Amino acid sequence: MLSAVWLFSVLPGYGALAQAVACSGSPSRLHIPDQQYDNYFLSDCHSSAHVVVTNPLAAANPAQAVARLLVAWPAGNSGAAAFFSPENGTASTLGLHLENSTSSGEALDPVYEPAQGNGNPRVGVAGQVHFDSPAVLTLSILGSIRNIRDYTEGGGVLNNDIQNAIQATKYGNSGATVSRMWFDNTTTTWLDFAPSDASDPVQIVPGGGARLRFGNGTYSFRASFNYPQLQQLSPEQVLNNASQGLVAQNQDQTTSLSFLSYKEKLLAGTWRFLTYFGRDTLITALLMQPVLSEGQGGAMEAVISAALERINQTDGTVCHEEVIGDFATLTNLENGVASNAPSCDYKMIDTDYYLPIVMKNYFVDSDTGRRRASDFLATKASFLPGNAGLTYLELAQRTAEKIMRLAAPFAAPGGQTVDNLMHLNPGVPVGEWRDSNNGLGGGRIPFDVNTALMPAALRAIAALSRAGFFSTHPDWKDAADRYAQVWEDETLQFFRVSLTQADARNLLNDYVSSGAFAGPSNAANITRDGVVFYGLALRGDTTTTTSNQPNQPDANIIRAMHTDDSFRHFLLNTTDQAQLSAFLSQTADHILAPFPAGLATSVGLVVANPAYYGADPAAALWTTSDYHGTVVWSWPQAMMAAGLGRQLGRGTSSGKGKGDDDHGEEEPAFCRDKPLREKVRAAYHRLWDLIEANAAQSSEEMWTWRWDPQSGFVAVPFSDVSSTESDVRQLWSLAFLAVRREDL
Ligand SMILES: *[C@@H]1O[C@H](CO)[C@@H](O)[C@H](O)[C@H]1NC(C)=O
Ligand SMILES: *[C@@H]1O[C@H](CO)[C@@H](O)[C@H](O)[C@H]1NC(C)=O
Ligand SMILES: *[C@@H]1O[C@H](CO)[C@@H](O)[C@H](O)[C@H]1NC(C)=O
Ligand SMILES: *[C@@H]1O[C@H](CO)[C@@H](O)[C@H](O)[C@H]1NC(C)=O
Ligand SMILES: *[C@@H]1O[C@H](CO)[C@@H](O)[C@H](O)[C@H]1NC(C)=O
Ligand SMILES: *[C@@H]1O[C@H](CO)[C@@H](O)[C@H](O)[C@H]1NC(C)=O
Ligand SMILES: *[C@@H]1O[C@H](CO)[C@@H](O)[C@H](O)[C@H]1NC(C)=O
Ligand SMILES: *[C@@H]1O[C@H](CO)[C@@H](O)[C@H](O)[C@H]1NC(C)=O
Q1: 312: Cα within 13 Å, side-chain hemisphere
Q2: Which residue, 17, 326, 339, 719, is most buried by CB atoms nearer than 10 A?
């Protein structure tokens, strides 16, 4: 008896399960209206939820919008989506919105009912939805966000087993519920509706399909489920002590960061990517370490442990995306196994490299990390059944072994060939952050992985080895650095595109006259020196023929200009001075030059610019309506700003004395080249001007633009041009909490 009381008092999670205790603080709330998407966030000590109401009447293009009430829950990457049509008239004419509760005055209130049945409490959100005209709930998808995304992004794909299991039942006197038992046979998702005020009773529409009929007016709803919850990190817990002031200064961003941060893992974004993604969380840790909490239970360890837990122990590959919750059970059943065990997607090739870099930055460079290393790395993995019993150190070593093995052939004497560069996995069209099918324009050897991530990971492995890690591989202390030197110095050349002034001008004029861009070509901005940049990828596929452009330097190069230079600037202090000066110079040129001559638009840097590709059909793969096209993403601008800041910082000599990993650095040559240094500084501050001018959307995943003859570039939500909704809050887009303009 006594011990049980003690247990409950020290483990708030269990105390909460045992009785319907009210949470001590008031719930945290955030409201973000975004065109037709009205976003509400709610978190309390029991659970957290993101509710998105889609109101077609607020859409730029109502014909494409569908009235929808969507709830996304971090636990199990779970969700409930309800699609509505007006009883009469076309879908786009149904207006709906949330009303504030007459009792709490809030749009959303938490739902909490103590455990019954499966031992988990029932948690969720309650609110009031108003329909402007009589409406029918025509479709609900209850269970996993993955199945909701299959429907919204997969051209309307529905799983019959899920849809057939949805039941419509009476709720109270005049309400109705749609609910579904998950594939685990124990969890249920419920959506309850009941009339408020004088609106019609909710009717179950005869004929099946779990359809409900509503009158015009206001209805209370409750969305809930009974699944084990995660332990959220509050804004105060996710930030380190020195950064507590951000909570008051940046309430939106710190509440968003907290919504995506849990002791078990950080989540990539919401509502579409509300789960572990290796690349997203590791890049976030790289950019945001200066403000994130360290030590046991802190954000840095949540990121690192989540990645280690999910490693494929056989080959050391770091997990890209986890498969959990109802979707995990479904996936297992499809493979003939009745199991709820989570699993992982390992198709990406870039994620492995981020892990040792983040580990080095924490366990070697941070006092807290150094102190925590031995305890943390002795932790036994418990998330994936296949990794049970392995320590975090053993798992980290598998990844390092993989990287060392992959690095060796290119680093060997005479080994610097295209064949020895890192390729996407066979048969997989994607492999790094530009992971839409056309993101790399058909390239199979990505620039970021080969010129930056591989050498940076090797430097990190060398530093970790020198700090006592990986003691069964004593040779790595030197070998990893030796490999890194080759990867740093010998990879850029494969991607180099050099155009004469005349060719560059012609290509820009062709791009504009082809109708790809309605604004000026800025061809006159091209100087006598022409244009140099490094292509986005190499085809690496000798069977592909390209149209033979005049003066095409190398048909193998995907000749799109891009922002991935930032990886080298941010992750490497390269030492080939001529190469570094030239590389910095061309990055600065592209930031200073207006699109399509360069990357700069007034709404930010485009992540890809195919203007110099010429008539190759591949150039048409990057447009303003492509996810990785001539569009603006937030985090690459943060990484570019942080990277240029680091390079400029190398010249101030204040960066010295940080252990053995700055190679006892001398001032790089570009620092003494005054015009070059000034150009890089100008690019740095130009970029910051763009970032600051676009602060309103910088916490979003990405955005696009249209050209207006009067006002030029106008930022436009991506969902206006694509059926893909971009996430309203994305973890790595919160990087500007940590990355700030410096006085350089
Ligand atoms: C909508 O159509 C139904 C069936 O045609 C009809 O009974 C109902 O009165 C109409 N409702 C409105 C609001 O016009
Ligand atoms: C709900 O209340 C907030 C202020 O608390 C107010 O800004 C908002 O307009 C209200 N919403 C509705 C639909 O009345
Ligand atoms: C759930 O129950 C069904 C029917 O009894 C069974 O076929 C299925 O394997 C069960 N699912 C799991 C995950 O055990
Ligand atoms: C429904 O709409 C009618 C016509 O606009 C209005 O008179 C009535 O009050 C509305 N009912 C509710 C419950 O809002
Ligand atoms: C942060 O603040 C807490 C509470 O004031 C304190 O216990 C802790 O030692 C501090 N951590 C660091 C790393 O300074
Ligand atoms: C883990 O790696 C091994 C070796 O490459 C591979 O055979 C296996 O399929 C991978 N596991 C998963 C779950 O992808
Ligand atoms: C580019 O050219 C335009 C005129 O075409 C000019 O207004 C602009 O200042 C130039 N920009 C740069 C960076 O040279
Ligand atoms: C590169 O040098 C800068 C300035 O000295 C430093 O801040 C940064 O940590 C170094 N980066 C690496 C990867 O060593």
Answers
A1: 19
A2: 326
